[in-house]
Amino acid sequence: MDDPTITVATLLRKLCEGMSTNPDGAYDLALTYLSENDKLRSLIDEGRSVKAKERQLCQKIHARLSKVSARDADKFNESYGKLKDSFVLKQREAVLSLLLALSETPQNSESTQQLFPVPELAVPNSKVGPSTAASSSSKSTIGSVSWSSHVPKQQGSSQSLPSTISSMGQQVALSSNDRSSERSCVREALLAVSGVKARCSSSWPRPVQIMYSRIAHLGFLHDRLKEFIDPSSGLMPQGLMGDGMVTFIRDELTEYFRSVAVLHSQVCEGDGGGGTLRRVCVWAQEPLHRLTWLANIAHTAHHKKGGELASCVHRFVRHGDERVATLARRLLTALTYPLLLMLTQWLLNGEIDDPFNEFFIESRSGVPIDRMWHDKYRVREWMVPSFMSREQAAQILATGKSVVFMREACADEPAPADHCLHLHDLLQAHDASGECRCTDPGDGQERATRPGGGASTAWWEAHGLRAAVGAAHEAAAARLLAALSTHHHLLDHLAAHRRYLLLAQGDFVHHLMTLLQDELSKPATSLYVHSLSFTLETAVRATNAQFEPPHVLARLQVNLYPNCDGREDSGWDVFALQYRVDGPLGTLFPATCAARYRALFTQLWRVKRIEHALHHAWRDHTILQKRLRKMPEVWGLMRRVSCLRAEALRLCGALQEASFEGAEAAWAELLAAAAARQHLDRLLALHHRALDRHSIHAMIHHTTQELQSYLGNVLNETLALRSFETTLHAGINRELERRDQLEQLKTERVARDEYPISSADEARDKEKRKIFHQFLANRKADLNVWARTYRGHVTTLILKLALHTEVSLQTLAFRLDYSDFYKRGDAKLHEPLTYQHKRLSEIGLITAKSKLINHTRKK
């Protein structure tokens, strides 16, 4: 007994209520008799002081409410009367003190008014009528008399004793009726909580109906969850992860039923006297909160499965309410347990066990082995869980593909992989009960946690998930690249593609072109692969290519690709070198990559052939120049032809130099990545980038289609120059042979003591010289036309290069006209080759337009 005063007064009050029909009168009479006892007098005085203090507090609260609204004051009197008749609350004086203190607390906080808006209840004094004031005062008087009913009566108070006794009897009868009604409400509420349909009686008081409705809402949530996990409803999620969610909800409902059963036994104990509707309502708060959020999560999970389902639940993990976040975390851990098993199987063994298509990695059948890395496996973007980034999904995909590639393409021995060591601590094997053994770094003890619960960190939110997946990815990629580099000679094949298909091995290309010059000048229909292959072997043995490894030389072959446009081709148009790859290397060099290499070889071979033809023309010109000492009429023409040839040679050299320099950095990065054994996707991207750089500078890329046509015009005109020189040299050689024969005839006639030349021979010689001079005049005219056409095409090419968005192609434009030769000959090049024009050209306009579009999209 902590407070003897209140305990004695309370016991005395209970005794009077149990033994008398007029508890107040009996209580006053008992106080009168007990006051004669000196031992209890002090306790009685203290009890009276408590009653007086309670009456004082009621008067203060009533006065404060009367200033605001008379209606509120009346409601307070009614509520206080019910409070006095109630046996639930014992410390009435403490509750009244708290209410008075709360009313005196200032409520002018700005943030409080915003979060909890309170309507203005103040009533102006001018609007309060006299009748209202009178009624208020009368009600306050009545209320004060009722609050002080336990004070000893004055003389004459016995006249009102019968009415007081009758009113008290009515209150006791009403109290008993309320108790029986409350017991029925509790029974109905328990039935509603269990999912049984029950009706709320309209005769119940409004507060009871509100509490009943709040409790009965548990039954509605229970029915929603039961419908969600019912297979016949069509709402139950499919798949293994859906089964995990259904199992978790079923366990929650089982626990809920157990709590309801325990509550039912406690409430019904002793004919319902052990529990009240308010106690049931207080108990229902926690299940109501839990089932409400479970129903919300289940509603968002309709018709979803796999990673989509996990993403829906993961959104609730970031909820601000810690209870909701904990519930969602336990649910997510339970339903992602099948995902953990599939992820472990994929990362460690490269196998997909996904009967319901829930895994975010998809396997497609019917894909050939050389396209396995590119097409067989892919990520379902919509199935990637939200707790996993796209980068992690790509790493997981690449790790599993590396395992499959090593097993199927590389025929690797089934030895323990290095990447398993990084995943051992994270993706440990779970036992049949779903427990995961985790080692505490603090004390080194092993603790078991279940996927559906436990305070430990779940696998999907583990701090080392990203690092472990990244380390496993790096280890698997390094192992794969080590196998490709060691057993399949990846670096040698990359270098061989660059040397022989992209014509980087200069001595081999020059010697091969020299050997094939006569053969490829024939029509394409008269060529045979076996004869060209023999020439290829001869070129290999005569150059540094002979020092290549055997596995490289065995793959270098000759192929003929005739055009399908119906025109008659020469050997130069259909000849191509081919580098055959198979096995795992087919992943890095697929058919599409071989087509790109063939296109690059064709373009580079064409430029190289033109350069070789011009060099051959220079050699013929040098040989012929020694015989032209007695033919001064051709000196000017030959000098101009030599200048134009040098101009075309410089253009071909600049094109080849730009092509190799532009892709040199990309190839160096590719070879360095292959030597460092980076992951295969990185090598594929670098290889694709290197081919793109080559294609751009060879002007066969999709972004340089316009330049390709202009470059083709320039190359065609350059070939026309070679044809022009061949015709010119042939005409000059014929004239030289005729003159040599005439001189030889003169010498023979002089030796026979005859006239050196007759009149007929002289007339014939003049006619031949006249024809030759006409031939030279025609060739000069043709050369002038060719020079104008060629320089016009070159000027247009330089202009388009200067206007291109690629900076290296703009640099090529300056390189082709470094001496401003073409700029002086054409006014169109005056502005495009200046910095000011570049700022105001269409490049700047296109860039500004693209920036504006991107900015608008971001908004």
From TrEMBL:
Keyword Cytoplasm: yes
Source organism, top-level taxon: Eukaryota
Keywords: Cytoplasm, Cytoskeleton, Microtubule
Residue intervals of the Gamma tubulin complex component protein N-terminal domain: 201-482
Domain Gamma tubulin complex component C-terminal: 490-822
Keyword Metal-binding included in the entry's annotation: no
Region feature (Disordered): 144-179
Subcellular location: Cytoplasm, Cytoskeleton
Gene3D superfamilies (alphabetical): Gamma-tubulin complex, C-terminal domain
Composition skew (Polar residues), residue ranges: 151-178
Pfam families on file: GCP_C_terminal (PF04130), GCP_N_terminal (PF17681)
Family per record: Belongs to the TUBGCP family.
Protein name: Gamma-tubulin complex component 3 homolog
Source organism: Bicyclus anynana
Lineage start: Eukaryota, Metazoa, Ecdysozoa, Arthropoda, Hexapoda
Gene: LOC112053679
